[in-house]
Design goal:
globular; 12 helices
């Protein structure tokens, strides 16, 4: 075996921004702004849900978990990108890469399952209103939320364990902006058939199954809404689903583009854009979607701001 094949990679180099000259000068402030908006926006949603009694319902309980996930997802990738811009070195150590991949897969996997549970909550509220309090009691909500976190962490642990067995034969350039399964498998110089098989099987449970469950839930929801005679009732029912449905489209749409590229693959520039749209932009959009399209959240924010103004007057 050659010396190169025996070389163990201890550091990776990200090439995602290599096509942008002086990227650290142009991209540091936009990425910093996106990260701050993401953290502050989701923290605002989480805090409002904890403070306002009108938001103490299953829908907002799950939304608080979604806000936590968005902060975590963004914090896994963006701070490292900002540090690399600051030091003008697009690198990451092997151990940091494995850790980044583990937490990124965990949080994105948990979010898919959580969105499916939120769809079921909307189904129970609209299609089974008389039984809603029994179907979505506090104990069940806590169990479902806990199950999504465990499910996502176990799935990610399996992928990370398999990825840690990959060998890179001295090749350390990742055509991406963060560590993820597809670029690492593409770099590997040993057999990746087991990794690919596990990835395909896991995607059925972590992506396809939640998406189909959401679609099925909204089919029943739509059928129930169409049976409502009053226009006001229909509009109210649609409004309770609009924010969640928008988040679902953004999440699964960006995931589809990121993990199902064309057979020829993306160019480096397109891959960088798609990666950004998948794990950086959606966490920023979610609090904006729920605050701008949700009257209860806007009402809670208005009450908090008014109470704070009275304190300082």
């Amino acid at each position: 075996m050659g010396v190169q094949n025996q070389t163990r990679v201890v550091e990776f180099v990200f090439l995602g921004f290599s096509g942008i000259p002086n990227s650290h000068l142009y991209l540091f402030l936009p990425f910093l702004a996106v990260y701050l908006i993401t953290v502050l926006g989701n923290l605002m949603i989480f805090t409002l849900i904890q403070l306002d009694s009108s938001l103490q319902s299953p829908m907002y309980y799950f939304l608080s978990h979604l806000s936590c996930l968005d902060i975590c997802t963004s914090s896994v990738t963006v701070p490292k990108i900002l540090m690399n811009f600051l030091y003008q070195r697009q690198t990451i150590t092997y151990n940091q890469c494995m850790a980044q991949m583990f937490f990124l897969m965990s949080f994105t996997g948990i979010e898919g399952a959580l969105l499916a549970i939120m769809a079921y909550d909307r189904y129970a509220a609209i299609c089974k209103p008389l039984h809603y309090s029994r179907l979505m009691n506090l104990k069940l909500c806590a169990v479902l939320a806990f199950a999504t976190w465990v499910w996502g962490l176990l799935n990610s642990a399996l992928h990370t364990a398999l990825s840690s067995r990959l060998r890179f034969c001295g090749v350390n350039q990742i055509h991406h902006i963060f560590c993820d399964i597809p670029p690492l498998m593409k770099m590997s110089c040993n057999d990746v058939h087991i990794n690919q098989l596990v990835t395909h099987i896991a995607s059925l449970f972590m992506s396809v199954a939640p998406f189909l469950f959401i679609i099925l839930s909204y089919v029943f929801i739509l059928c129930s809404i169409l049976k409502i005679h009053s226009t006001t009732g229909k509009n109210k029912a649609f409004s309770t689903c609009a924010s969640h449905l928008t988040v679902v489209i953004v999440y699964f749409g960006s995931a589809l583009l990121n993990y199902n590229p064309p057979s020829a693959g993306y160019s480096l520039e397109t891959d960088t854009l798609v990666s950004t749209m998948f794990c950086i932009i959606p966490p920023m959009l979610n609090p904006l979607i729920y605050s701008l399209r949700n009257k209860e959240v806007k009402g809670a924010l208005k009450k908090v701001l008014e109470s704070q103004r009275k304190v300082y007057i």
